[in-house]
Write a structure and sequence with these properties.
Layout lengths: L2 H9 L9 H25 L6 H12 L3 H7 L7 H18 L10 H22 L2
Helix pairs in contact: 1-5, 2-3, 2-5, 3-6, 4-6, 5-6
Length: 132
């Protein structure tokens, strides 16, 4: 088991992994939901002010799966060890980008949202790049 999957499983209880199609869909939802929960908590705690549009875009990305990603994850090769490890690395990087959200203050909000948005886009691009 890779270090990345251990990190994701520690952060995302019940992380489904990538053994089969259902697990891959579920893990995609779980990771996006975990990040979305951190974003939602920020909205309750801090005024978004000039970061509203970027925040809304990131939260939308968390709430609704990219159909191209979901379709890609349905391919059996995403269950292969190397491909699954690559996706799990992306999951771990996204989790790392959103970790520490409870320590974000108003001064750091914009940078935090940018970091999470970039990680969401990078995860999507990496998964699509793995598509056959």
């Amino acid at each position: 088991m890779s270090d990345e999957i251990i990190d994701v499983r520690t952060s995302v209880p019940g992380y489904a992994g990538h053994a089969d199609v259902v697990s891959r869909r579920r893990s995609d939802q779980q990771v996006r939901a975990w990040v979305g929960e951190r974003l939602a908590a920020l909205r309750e705690r801090l005024p978004l002010d000039g970061a509203t549009a970027a925040f809304d875009d990131a939260l939308f990305h968390c709430q609704f799966g990219d159909q191209h990603v979901i379709k890609a994850l349905e391919d059996a090769h995403f269950g292969d060890d190397a491909t699954a490890a690559a996706v799990e690395t992306e999951d771990a990087q996204l989790i790392a980008a959103a970790a520490g959200s409870e320590r974000v203050d108003a001064a750091g909000l914009s940078a935090f949202i940018t970091r999470v948005s970039d990680a969401l886009r990078e995860r999507t691009a990496a998964i699509l790049a793995l598509k056959r």
